[in-house]
Amino acid sequence: MAWSLALVAALAAAVAASIAIGSREVSPAEIMAALGGSTDGLGTAAVAKRVARTVLAVLVGASLGLAGGVMQGVTRNPLADPGILGVNMGASLAVVTGIAWFGLWTYTAFIWTAIIGAAVTAVFVYVVGSL
To answer: Of the candidates 98, 91, 87, 97, which has an alpha carbon nearest to the alpha carbon of residue 124?
Structure first.
């Protein structure tokens, strides 16, 4: 329980630092005004942008942690990660194949091709591993 509270406190400190520290110095009054919804000044506008960036960073970190936990749970391997299981290489192979053979050149095509390649590789590794 103490570790959980310490981790939550560390996350809160990191969030506060992410909002307060940047290329432009902001005062605590500007932070409170921005958190209240005001974007009148340059400082409050900067804080409003930092809040969105910070929330997105926390959500992405939580999603990656959840995905890693699920991968370790499904494979029943505490060392499982996308690099060891070959999911990264499957995504890379799909993108390179798409570029070389199908002429893909947009970022959206790269992303969807990588997702499909990673999914196919993960299913293949799971099927082979469960034999």
So the answer is: 87
Q: Note the residue count of the chain.
A: 131
pTM for this predicted structure: 0.78
**pLDDT tens-digit profile of 11-53?**
999 999 999 998 888 988 889 988 888 878 888 889 989 999 9
Looking up tokens 């942690």 gives 65
pLDDT in tens, 88-110: 999 999 999 999 999 999 999 99
Q: Decide if 30 contacts 47 (C-beta within 8 A).
A: yes
Q: Which residue in 95, 98, 88 sits closest to 121, CA to CA?
A: 88
- Ordered alpha helix ranges (H), the chain: 2-20, 28-35, 42-75, 82-85, 87-102, 107-129
Q: What is d(CA 57, CA 61) in angstroms, rounded to the nearest whole number?
A: 6
